[in-house]
Fold these 2 entries.
Entry 1:
Amino acid sequence: MMDGFSRIGETLVGKMRLLAIMVLGGLVLVIIVQAEAVLTTGEAVNRSMRYDIAMNGLNGKLDAVNALERVSRFAATRTPEDAQAARLFHNILLSRIDTWSAGAFGNFVATSPERVALLERVRAQVSGLSPLYARIEDPGVPDEIRRTLAQAVSGLIRIGGQAMMSNLTEAADIRETLRERQRFQNALVMVLIVFGAVLLAMMSFQARGLRLARESAERSARKFEQVAQRDPLTQLANRLAFDAALDKAIVEGDAGAGRLAVFAIDLDGFKAVNDMLGHAAGDSLLVSVARRLEEIVGGWGGDGLVSRLGGDEFTVLTRVPNGAPQAKARAQEMIDGLHAAHGLDHGNIVVNVTIGYALVDGQTVDADSVVQNADLALSHAKAAGKGRSQAYDASMREDATRRQLIEAGFSCALSRGEIVTHYQPQVEMATGRIVGFEALARWRHAELGWIPPSEFIRIAEASGRIAEIGEHILRSACRDASLLPQDVPVSVNLSVAQLARADLPGTVADILEETGLPPERLKLEVTESMVMSDSTRALATLRRLKALGVWIALDDFGTGYSALSYLRDFAWDELKVDRSFVQTLESDAQSLLIIRSIVELAQRLNISVTVEGVETPSQCALLRRAGCRVAQGFYYGHAVPAGELAGQLLRSFARVPLLEKPDLLGKGA
Ligand code: C2E
Ligand code: CA
Ligand code: CA
């Protein structure tokens, strides 16, 4: 609405401005013409004001009267002086008549033929008197001169009078013209004043419009700045504001206020809060965490900055006058402070946080690397177990570089066949016969040498490359197993990302078909934690895999939550008892007891058991007494390339009499 008005206002002002410019132009033109006219009139006035014609006329009249009067005087005195004077005045009158024929007066006379005739008659009369003047002393002559002169004088007086009248009329005309011009000028001035006023009004209207526009632009710029710098949910500074503050703090340097510390704070299990209590609860928790962080940081004094970079990632920027120990203490203060229950509308929520932090030292000059350092420390803290803090140290950057190298090398490794599959035998303890192999990925990196799978599998999982690698291992394991001289099964490890894919059963079926390996010779190993992350979906996928005829094994059993409900929720074919139990077998009586219980439970549930990490004959003996039948470990053999499998297998079979058909799958009574 306001917009519509201001637009109409703008067009109106635009039109009026055009009109004003046109009128002003017109006025200027009129003024120029008027000035020219005034100038011309001025000249006319000057001319008229000289009254030269009138004066000439008047003087002519006087000369005539004087000439007449001198003749009369001589007639009375008859002195030679007066005779002389009478002649002189006759001559003056003659030359006056001459001036009346030329110049401005001549022009005036010429305007009327009657006047020209009159002047000629007077001239003839006066000049005709010259012989009479010559003998003026003669009696009767002066009277004769006086009679003629009197006639001439009346003519002269008529012309002189006319000249006077004409001069006066002209002056009056000019005065009238001047008055008109003045009136016109006044009107012009009025118009100019009115237009000036209109222009002034327009300009002030425009100025007001401009001011309003500027104010509104300033308001929206301020608002935009705020929006751009604030996290809308928590009202904390956002990444932009945090980066700017960090840049500024780095430029300012230490300045005696202490070293700069950046804390990267991550809520543990925030996703679970979102998933279980809904996003509204998640949002409330984030707001509560924000307020509490502000409270804690406010308590430190100084100008610490709390910001939210997104999701459940918070950062704190502060100065620590006492250096690293103080940073550590402050991290702990935040962990403790945030751990206290958050009273939300949805009930009380308790969260743990993990914190990584980095101090700005003399070498860190750019904000990015400080933040990266804090993030690196955070991922180390997370890897080491959540709910803790970790300071950055330089080795983390080496780790990160190595990690980047590994990540960048996957494509090459796959295409060049650098990632290969090795096989570790699984052996029936009673006979020493190989009853299966576990496929284990091996990567010899061109630069880094052998990289353990525990390292690169994690990185492949994090960077989304694991599905390709997993498929590659699965395919080679199936192919290698299909070429074995005995029908032993092969176990392949699955990763959580593979299990999450709905097309996994299809891929497995395709690979089985492609390699010709019977499904019952493939065992897929998953860990408890993999199933836990999304158990409904994971169990559904496992059921579809099992439906193919493939065996499903629960790997690293005993290390995770060991929730026995998993044993009920899914019909596992095999449990793989984790190496940690075997390692403590001789030192810890509990371990033996646990293994015995697992074996008994598994037998009742008709699940076969394989013990991992068997390294010594005594471990072997203890495990056999505990009822274990199949084992895997360095005692029986390390993982070897596919080429060595056939030999190993044949040798192990040669040790037992062929009559006794081995239970290759390790299952059954
Ligand atoms: P895992 O599935 O538990 O595999 C067994 C690991 O224990 C192997 O380590 C094996 O070399 C090691 N091991 C076997 N016997 C002994 C022993 O007597 N003593 C000791 N100390 N260790 C023994 P590896 O090959 O380094 O693999 C480590 C982990 O990497 C595997 O643990 C598995 O979780 C993962 N992994 C390996 N290959 C693959 C793969 O192809 N796909 C996936 N998703 N994960 C794999
Ligand atoms: Ca395994
Ligand atoms: Ca294992």
Entry 2:
Amino acid sequence: MSLRPILIAPDPRLKAVARDVAKVDGEIRTLIADMLETMYEADGIGLAAVQIGVAKRVIVMDIDQKEGKRNARVFVNPKLLWASEELASFEEGCLSVPEIWEDVERPARIRAEYLDRDGLKQTLEADGLLADCLQHEMDHLNGVLFIDHLSRLKRSMALRKLAKAKKKETV
Ligand code: NI
């Protein structure tokens, strides 16, 4: 396993539309292990392969780790089967958009199908943080960041703050 550098917005690679994984093989399992290690190291609750520059439809998540226990979830080729009309709002952040936290409204409940790390098809019904986080990560696979859901004003404020932080880092 190894840590992979996380891309920070704006970066054209974060806009890439990721490709489906043809087969969950050793290479994909290594990618998954690296992504989990990278996510835990960065203290995140979700990471899409796109965020480490790999344009494949792979997501890792652990929404429980903040409570001190580990419950890693892996989603390969996730597809949304259904989303509720009812919306829910969560304050979101992103490892690729550091230091920015904003409320985002998304469908409150979803049903999705995906392959697990053994390549087996699974379906999942989710609400709450799990539904929000999975939708945030699935957006990454289509080159969409959570700040793209904000009003134009809030989005440009976030991008300016991000550019400032990036500049400070490189000085
Ligand atoms: Ni993100």
